[in-house]
Structure prediction request, 300 residues.
Amino acid sequence: MFRLSKKTEYAILAMQYLAEKSGEPVSAKEIATSLGISFEFLSKSLQSLMKSGLVNSQQGIKGGYHLVGTPDVISVMDIIQAVSENVGIVECMTDSDCVRSCTCDLKDPMSVLQSKVNEVFTQTFLADLANETQNNQILKNDFKILNGIN
Amino acid sequence: MFRLSKKTEYAILAMQYLAEKSGEPVSAKEIATSLGISFEFLSKSLQSLMKSGLVNSQQGIKGGYHLVGTPDVISVMDIIQAVSENVGIVECMTDSDCVRSCTCDLKDPMSVLQSKVNEVFTQTFLADLANETQNNQILKNDFKILNGIN
DNA sequence: TGTAAATAGGACTATTGTTATCCTAATTTA
DNA sequence: TAAATTAGGATAACAATAGTCCTATTTACA
Prediction:
């Protein structure tokens, strides 16, 4: 298994929604309704994004959220880090007291992978996620076929 | 959170261990002891690798596991797929009945990410994980500093 | 031929993390 | 003041992970 949490997924989708409606504040309720997900759970993601300064919020009627910065400078890693404590692909990467550190310090297979995964997430920006259109569905289908999913 | 399961982690580490001892059968017990992990849990990973044909096994005294193929052709994706059912970064990628499919088919942010992550895992081979040496510790430390881990 | 060491794998349990909900408070506009 | 909104703590339900236990089977070798 190798999966982003729903909290992360919703954060990414919400950020993209905000990117489309650049400027005007958008309420959590509108985003939740549009994506068909739980309003209250989505709120947790938005509050985390708020804490990290990726979005700003305005309370009260006519309130809502809007992006801080433009989609071409907000990376997926920014979003992942905003909503989750640990972003390492394995425990060793985030825990300072790894029991195996003495045996795998020199040749650490996971560090190689971690670097590559990091590169993907830090070099993919909100703008990149929205740029592609029909292509994505093709990629998605290819992936499903590759994995034998009907 | 964005993490490989222990089952996957152990599978990768075990495969690398086998790669180092190319040829001779290595017992699960030896690998478990060397890595300092549960023998019985590691066995689950090895049995999955066996089912997928990435390793061969020999029962009985002097038995053990050995790689099928060389480290330069075995990809990390091969290993991930061997030990886990779902390899999509989000549910939508592996479930055919995604409730949001109608709203995000054309502009699917997750497909872009999925493709990039797939590329990392399919283009990283067992050999790549062992190639680097001192460098990895530096990368690992950089990563920890980047994330404020002491 | 018996024993020890090894894989194979089913069943089960404990733990953890995720996901979701509920509730209350604070803020803001009209 | 009322309605709509964010803020956030508490907690419950659920699912996945991680790990253990047990038994069966295979095999080398004394």
In short: Chain B touches chain A through 65 residues (CB under 8 Å).
